[in-house]
Structure formats: C-alpha cells, structure tokens
C-alpha cells in the first residue's frame, strides 16, 4: 500500500514575545499513513496537533525534519492539488451564503461556472446542507459552519483530506454526521487525517491512530493491535444470590456490588470467570449476563497521560 503521509523527525520550535521565549510544540515526530485509510491524530490541548497539521498542509515550516505527501515534500506545489484542509476554526466571510462561499472557492481553483455549479450541488448534498445553502453564514450554527467548511475542503476533489478537530463543539448528531462523511470519503478511496481529543469519535472510524502528548509521539498503530489483545475485565451480572453467600462470591472476584436484586461482579481473566460460573451453579444463582471488557482507546490514552505525569 502506498503512503499518503510520511514524516521524519518533524520538530517545531516557536519563538514568541519580546524575549523570544521558546516553545517546543513538536518534537521528532515520525509517522506514516497509508493511502485510503482514516488516521486519527489524538492528544489533549496543547499536544501539538494543530502545529503538525499546519506543517503538513504547508502553512508553516518545521524547525527540523521532513514531511512527505504521496512521496513528495510537503511544500511541493503539486501536493496542494491533492489535499484539502478543514482548519480548527475556519474563518469565512459571514455575509456570504453557503453557496456563495463555495462559488468563491471554485473561482480560486479556476473552475468554470458550469462545472462549479455541478460541483456545488454535489457537495451540498454530501454535507447535507440542501435547503440551507442560500442562507448567510452568519445565521449558520457551529455544525452547519463545520459542514460548509468540509464542503470547501473537498472542492478540489482531494485524495487526502486534513481536518483539525472536525467534531469539536458539535452535538452528538453533528458528530455522527461528520463521522459519516469521513467514512464516505474513505469509501471513495480517499485518505483522511484528522485530529481530535474526543476519543470515542476516533475509536469508531479510525484504521490507525497516533497519540501525541506534549509534542511527542507516545504511541501509534492499527487500532486492532493497539486495542485487541488486552482484556481489561469480565463483568458478570447475577440474580437470585442469597445475602449470606455474598462473602464467598466476593472472595472469587476483583470487585462486587449489589444493585437492587442483582449482584454485579468483575473478574480479571477467564480462569476466574469459570470459578464464578461454577459457584453460581453450586449456589443456584442465575447468570443474567457475561460481558468481556476490552481495553478502549480511552484507557490507552489515560495510561499514556498518566505516564506523562498527567
Ligand atoms: N504561533 C505560536 N507561537 C508560540 N507558541 C505556539 C504557537 N502555536 C502553538 N504554540 C504552542 O505550541 C504548543 C502546541 O500547540 P498546538 O499545536 O496548537 O496544540 P493542539 O492543537 O494539540 O492543541 C502549545 O503549547 C501552544 O501554546
Ligand atoms: Mg489544535
């Protein structure tokens, strides 16, 4: 599979203020993103996500290291034609309507009017803005602005789409809509690279993730390999457990709680699970459910965060 993005030791030092105080925003970032995949770039605020996206889209230069898009250096002009970018806080002229904004965008790409109109219709459909395209942007909600921003990022039919926190500030329905658009883009063979601090959104749609903390890469890989092998616990729900038997059950489990007429227990591995099942048979308790809990992206993120002293 070809690489959509490759970075080698990307580093960015910002100097700001009268004393030119240095901030190491990004340190030695080496990642690679395969074409046609959805890549989640995760990290808390200030981790260096926006800095990375700005370097990859050629808006700022790295202090050290290199970035490549489809094998070409990020500042190569031919790269610009192949990428689209939805910034974190897109700034649009708010007296324009959604349709006018997209026309403006098409003009920048030098697209003739007829073709532009067709493309605009197609994009308005894709981002589900039909019926709202002639309203001025100042009357748009955050979710609508995000969707029209996405439409402009997709205008040149890019092979690689960058999105900086595309789900932030959206309600659950808006987040799902953005997720669906990302999955649609993947279906069309495109590569999507997006940053987020909303882990659950990344978990559902990403093929691969990278976790960034304080400008440093903490972990990267396919979600299956990052997540799959670790079983966190197995939760079992029992009923018809007599009160006096609870201590003997408790000695078999990592945790136990009583909720109404149910007893919820948690064990660490399959061996312990068999013991609880044997116990339930012996004591005539009813097993209502057995739920293995795998490690989630949230768990990995928290582990890494604690490792950083967070
Ligand atoms: N233009 C800038 N000048 C100085 N420091 C900056 C600048 N841009 C970002 N930073 C700093 O770099 C770090 C990473 O920022 P950023 O890439 O925006 O993080 P994220 O997008 O993950 O929240 C932060 O400490 C931030 O304050
Ligand atoms: Mg940011």
Structural class: alpha/beta
Instruction: Assign an overall shape.
Output: elongated
CATH topology of the largest domain: Rossmann fold
What kind of sheet is the major sheet? Answer: 6 strands, mixed
Strand/helix succession: EEEEHEEHEHHHEHEHEEHEHEEHEH
Mean pLDDT: 89
Distance between the termini: 37 Å
Please work out how many helical segments DSSP would assign: 11
Helix content: 25-40%
Q: What number of domains?
A: 2
Poorly predicted regions: none
Regarding quaternary structure, how should these chains be classified?
A: single chain
What is the compact description of this entry?
It contains 11 helices and 15 strands. By secondary structure, the protein is of the alpha/beta class. The protein has 2 domains: 225 residues, P-loop containing nucleotide triphosphate hydrolases (Rossmann fold); 64 residues, Alpha-Beta Plaits.
Would you mind describing this structure in some detail?
The structure is a single chain. With 310 residues, this protein is an alpha/beta fold. It is 34% helix and 31% strand. It contains 11 helices and 15 strands. The protein has helices at 49-56, 77-80, 98-108, 113-126, 142-153, 172-187, 199-205, 223-227, 246-250, 270-282, 297-307, and strands at 3-16, 21-29, 32-34, 38-42, 64-69, 72-73, 83-86, 160-164, 191-196, 208-213, 216-222, 231-239, 255-259, 262-267, 286-294. The strands form 3 sheets. Strands 7-8-9-4-10-11 form a 6-stranded mixed β-sheet, sandwiched between helices. Helix 3 crosses helix 4. It is elongated. The chain starts with a strand and ends with a helix. The mean pLDDT is 89. The chain binds adenosine-5'-diphosphate and magnesium ion. Adenosine-5'-diphosphate (ADP) is lined by residues 14, 16, 23, 25, 43, 45-51.
